Amino acid sequence: MTRAQSSPAGAVRTAPGRAEAGRSGPAELWPLAAGLLLLALLWFGPLPERARGSFAAHMVMHMGVVAVAAPLLAVGIARAVPRLVSSFPPALAIVASAVEFVAVWTWHAPALHDAARMDPTFLILEQASFLAAGVLVWATAIGAPGDGRVAARAAGVCALLITSMHMVLLGGLLLFAPRPLYACAEVCSPAAALTPLGDQQLGGALMLVIGGSAYLAGGLALLSSVLRDRAPTGETA
After folding, report:
1. Is 70 helix (H, G, I), strand (E, B) or coil?
2. How far is CA 138 from the centre of its chain?
3. Eight-state DSSP code of residue 183
């Protein structure tokens, strides 16, 4: 009798989150569709051609990928395959933030950035690495729907806040640099009505505001969920 009573209670406590996530229908996967649609607009619209001559346009494409499309895709993936996302160890979120740090700062080194602006092959490599790193950070930070693992989510908070800080730092360096940092500022035609330095400063401001804000907001929202999902102290096994 006691076994029959305890078994359903345990099932009610552990199964709903996974069961609901496992039955994710098309309506619940809208973030995945929205993220893919945004990527199509960013990569196959007029923006790549515009980005050849404008650092700010290039930054719009970058921020659209990592700060908007990547979190949408991560949420969609978490709903579609929750077991995969919930299997990520907590430390992976910190590793993912380091991977994104390396990807972002490497591709903003003058030689590689100029190559991505002028050579479609390098642009594809750059955008692919931004997307992969961005999705990895957001997916490992968010975790599976209904997942209450405090350690994993706490690591996700750290990962998102660390990423926010380095986005702000790089954006500030681009914004306050006293001269253009990239040869493409002179070789490529800059955006209309903007000097090469002004174009770079606008791009830096976009990274600082959009990148910094998106990851900061994500980190704070995740922190709120960690505090909200703590196990009740008065409950017995």
Report:
1. helix
2. 5
3. T
Query: Region 18-33: what's the mean pLDDT?
Result: 69
Cα 29 to the center of its chain, rounded Å: 17
Rounded to whole angstroms, the Cα distance separating 60 from 170 reads 15
Nearest of 28, 17, 26 to residue 145 by alpha carbon = 17
Rounded distance between C-alpha atoms, residue 224 and residue 148, angstroms: 12
* CA–CA gap between residue 51 and residue 181 (Å, rounded): 16
Q: What is the pLDDT of residues 183-219, one digit of tens each?
A: 887 777 666 678 889 999 999 999 999 999 999 999 9
> Helices marked H in the chain — which ranges?
2-22, 30-44, 47-52, 55-63, 70-80, 82-86, 91-107, 110-118, 120-142, 150-176, 184-187, 196-206, 212-228
Q: How far apart are the C-alpha atoms of 158 and 156, rounded to whole Å?
A: 5
